[in-house]
Amino acid sequence: MSVASASWKTHGPVVVESGTANAWDPPVRIPSPVMLHRWQHLSFLHWPYPAPAVQALLPEGLEVDTFDGSAWVGLILFRLTVTLPGIPTLPWINSCPEVNVRTYVRGPDGGRGIWFLSLEASRLGAVLTARKAYGLPYRWACMHLDRDERTIWYETARRWPGRRPREVIALALGEPVSSEELTPLEIFLTARWRLYSSWRRGLAATEVEHVAWPTQRAEPLCVHDELIPAAGLPEPAGAPLALFSPGVSVRFGPRRQLGATLGAVVS
């Protein structure tokens, strides 16, 4: 099935959190970021799920954010480079492939954002730091990313901890599309400016800022996924809604504690 011609385009207008007409206008500006990321060679693959199935995986205080009644779960695959302001970047230390399983939520602060069900990275030091300091459920994995002009290939196998699911994704890259050409559903899935995480036995919110994604639609060539079932959901059904982006630079604000809740624990 051609994703570009699928029925995803029939949905109604998206609600822009910032209250402006521009979905790519972040609701919070970050003049003094605490961390800088570069996300490159990035693919978004998304499937709809029943909202109750996803809600069951969320900690107290978060509510699944739906589009036309469905929750959405994404596999996001890319190369991550992390820097701290004023500290030089060392590619062999600061950069590695990553894949995360995420869904979309509404927080106790009234915001709309992302909740990570799992994250894989190939740098053990980065995994340990992110789990301890940021409360994010990172796993150490063996990963590979390869790209040519028309295709991109990702492969990962978890090393630690727990189960060792594998992932093999290959996409054919289509023509660029402007941010104005994205469908309301594609905007709902990609124009996200806040992430929620476990912190101090409760929840924290972190604001992010970046320019509108430069995007291309993509056609799945191979989708072998074991990460979504490992996160506690049924295997995804049907072809995913797929997008590709060469990447953006991202600014992170400080975390904000949202108060104590139960059940927000990194597994």
Give structural notes.
- By secondary structure, the protein is mainly beta.
- It has one domain (32-260): Acetoacetate decarboxylase-like.
- Helices cover 12% and strands 48% of the residues.
- It has five helices and 13 strands.
- It has helices at 51-55, 91-94, 124-134, 184-190, 227-230; strands at residues 35-50, 63-64, 70-83, 95-106, 112-121, 138-147, 151-160, 166-177, 194-199, 202-209, 215-225, 241-252, 256-260.
- Strands 1, 2, 3, 4, 5, 6, 7, 8, 9, 10, 11, 12 and 13 form a 13-stranded mixed beta sheet that branches.
- It is globular and about 45 Å long.
- The chain starts with 34 loop residues before the first strand and ends in a 7-residue tail after the last strand.
- Mean pLDDT is 86; it is low at 1-20 and 262-267.
Give a topology summary.
Elements: E1 35-50, H1 51-55, E2 63-64, E3 70-83, H2 91-94, E4 95-106, E5 112-121, H3 124-134, E6 138-147, E7 151-160, E8 166-177, H4 184-190, E9 194-199, E10 202-209, E11 215-225, H5 227-230, E12 241-252, E13 256-260
Parallel strand pairs: 5-6, 5-9
Antiparallel strand pairs: 1-3, 1-12, 2-4, 3-4, 4-5, 6-7, 7-8, 8-11, 9-10, 10-12, 10-13, 11-12
